[in-house]
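Aim 2, interim progress: modelling of the succinic acid-bound target.
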Amino acid sequence: MKNIVIIATGGTIAGSGIASSYKAGQIDVNEILATIPRINELASIRLIDFCQKDSNDITEKDWLGLRSLCYALGCDKEVDGIVITHGTDSFEETAYFLNLTLDIDKPVVMTGAMRPATATSADGPMNLYEAVALACRPKAKGAGVLAVFADTIYSGRDITKTNSLKTNAFDMGDVGMLGYMRDDKVYMQNLPYRLHTYQSEFARAEFDVLPEAGIYYVHTDCDPQLLAWMLDRYDGVVIAGSGSGNYPKAIQEVIENYEGRAKIVRASRLLEGSVFESDVFDPLHKTIPAYRLSPHKARILLMLALAQGYEQADLDRVFELY
Ligand code: SIN
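Predicted structure of the complex, ligand included:
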């Protein structure tokens, strides 16, 4: 039998209340495990209570702590796989951070829930059961950080929360899912192509405090002075542009006149498609295109790359690679 460690961080999966009104991160995951006795036929399970947070309160310090814990478990010969329970709101940020920074090829599967543990027909127990089943499988080894929600397997790079209400709250847009689950059966369809975990140049890097990066949201009449302030204040700024990372002329002027050291990434506020270099919006090539990364994921890659002291050429390279 496989040895699986579940790392609990809180979220709605450990929430208490009813679907329309609850507090995240209230219930011990042992109580949830007790409602799924069949899980003990899949694996021998050890639970580590990392934290009990609403995922909106997860911090960079938590990311770094989770990274160290996963690394230690990855080195432990007694551990075959890791499952992380996490709130859904910032789920994709933690998933992408770990996908870029874990020097580990053992299965790492994240899951959570949209209905609290005490709600009628809570979705957490089934998600947790399927996550443990996936973490037991050789197919999950070396595949990067994976996630399971509503019988669907996602990659830590591309998973995106797209629905604030339904139990089927996640999607990977035009990339498509990696596979699906039926109880403990795993049906993989695709594998992530972008570099991840042990393949990543950030996997063996030391991080203490990450550089600071913020996101500037583009909208009609958006304030150029706010962007100028952010460029002064942060080490890097991600523009959540319209369309394929576009913005008004007033924003283009701020970018073109900016001579400081902050790096600027152009992402899109849209869910699908990609941002490329643009001779129209950035003829001086002062920005780095984020391609398919959402603004909040582009921010994570930017912080990791800035922590390495990367300049424009390497920033261009990592945004093409990861
Ligand atoms: C949270 O992200 O912790 C609350 C929301 C959820 O888990 O669905």
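The two ends are 35 Å apart (CA to CA). The chain has a mean pLDDT of 97.
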